[in-house]
Design goal:
The protein has 349 residues and is of the alpha/beta class. It has 2 domains: 88 residues, Udp-n-acetylmuramoylalanyl-d-glutamate--2,6- Diaminopimelate Ligase, Chain: A, domain 1 (3-Layer(aba) Sandwich); 210 residues, 3 Solenoid (UDP N-Acetylglucosamine Acyltransferase, domain 1). Helix content is 13%, strand content 27%. It contains 4 helices and 39 strands. A 12-stranded mixed sheet has the order 7-10-13-16-19-24-27-30-33-36-38-39. It has a 10-stranded parallel sheet with strand order 8-11-14-17-20-25-28-31-34-37, with no helix packed on it. Strand 21 and strand 22 form a beta hairpin. It is flat.
Length: 349
């Protein structure tokens, strides 16, 4: 049976290396002793061996550092005095960022395997770079463009006219329509991008569909989680900015504009025409009504119901959402009232 304590099962992940301590230190922009020492893999502190590199980013796990058998550890300089003998310290100001870089060195993202699978259906009017990969059963429509180094997963559907930039990874069973993607975009399995927005006019006789004539524009380096849905715009475009990370099972309505490097966590829903600034964090299961403006670097807590604009840098919680300080004041007040009520009860009540 495979060793479950260490990451990187060889059946699923390709590992490079070994790499020297000198190479790891250079990647991290730091210095370390024993530069010629070789490291073969990565592992958590509790399961790492002498040929592994590990990391410490959370003080909660500082106790594991003294007991680790790792050959090297990426950590903050504050923990240097706790590194055990025989372990090489790689001190950096942002250990988790350093860990991400080193882990990517050992386990780089898969590169595309150029070529079109025999079972794929590619329209003669589609444009596919020779270095791109088209997986089994994928369908590429007329006028679609697939950029250099990009990969299209099995059973994915790229509708007519869609543009996929360079070095994108479109995973299995994704559907893309009415969309233009930048470079290095990643879309995980089952995501649906560019379908009709939820738009209709209501009259006494029922519903009249409103044509959805916009597109979905996705910026460089954005990532879209599995089974997420992003509606195309109605009379304007839905925009996902550069570096935006969207988790699994998120719903983005038509005409939404998400600013660069924002994060939307699982099961959140954003209604149509909401404008979200740069660096915004939207936590799990939050719901935003339509036509709102969320300021730069705002924070929206889990399960919040946002019904009004949020200023730059503000953190909101609750339903309806309010400033986090006000929210916690109300929670504390209610708790005190509940406790005082229980103390005031007469025996037998």
């Amino acid at each position: 049976m495979a060793d479950d304590a260490k990451p990187g099962d060889g059946r699923f992940f390709h590992r490079t290396g070994p790499h020297s301590i000198a190479a790891l230190a250079a990647l991290l922009g730091t210095e370390a002793r024993q530069p010629e020492r070789m490291i073969s893999g990565i592992a958590p502190l509790q399961s790492a061996g002498p040929e592994d590199v590990s990391f410490l980013d959370n003080r909660r796990y500082a106790g594991l550092l003294a007991q680790t058998k790792a050959g090297a550890v990426i950590l903050h300089p504050d923990f240097l005095d706790k590194v055990p003998p025989g372990c090489v310290a790689l001190a950096v100001s942002e250990p988790y960022v350093g860990w991400a870089r080193v882990a990517t060195l050992f386990y780089p993202f898969p590169e595309s395997s150029p070529g079109v699978h025999p079972s794929a259906i590619v329209d003669p009017l589609a444009s596919i770079d020779p270095s791109a990969e088209i997986g089994a059963g994928a369908v590429i429509g007329a006028g679609a463009e697939i950029g250099a180094g990009s990969s299209i997963g099995a059973l994915a559907y790229i509708a007519p006219g869609v543009v996929v930039g360079r070095d994108c990874r479109i995973h299995a069973q994704v559907t893309l329509s009415h969309a233009i993607l930048g470079d290095r975009v990643v879309i995980y399995p089952g995501a649906r991008i560019g379908q009709d927005g939820f738009g209709f006019a209501i009259s006494k006789t029922g519903f009249t569909p409103v044509p959805q004539l916009g597109r979905v524009l996705i910026g460089d380096g954005a990532e879209i989680g599995a089974n997420t849905t992003i509606d195309r715009g109605s009379a304007q475009d839905t925009v996902i900015g550069p570096g935006v990370h969207i988790d699994n099972l998120v719903q983005i309505g038509h005409n939404v504009n998400i600013g660069p490097y924002s994060v939307v966590v699982a099961q959140a829903g954003i209604s149509g025409s909401t404008q979200i600034g740069q660096g915004v964090m939207i936590a799990a299961q939050a719901g935003l009504t339509g036509h709102l403006k969320i300021g730069n670097k705002a924070r929206i807590g889990a399960q919040s119901g946002v019904m009004q604009d949020v200023p730059d840098g503000e953190e909101v919680l609750g339903a309806p959402a309010q400033n986090s300080k006000s929210f916690f004041r109300e929670v504390i007040t209610l708790r005190k009232l509940a406790q005082s009520g229980r103390k005031g009860q007469k025996p037998g009540n």
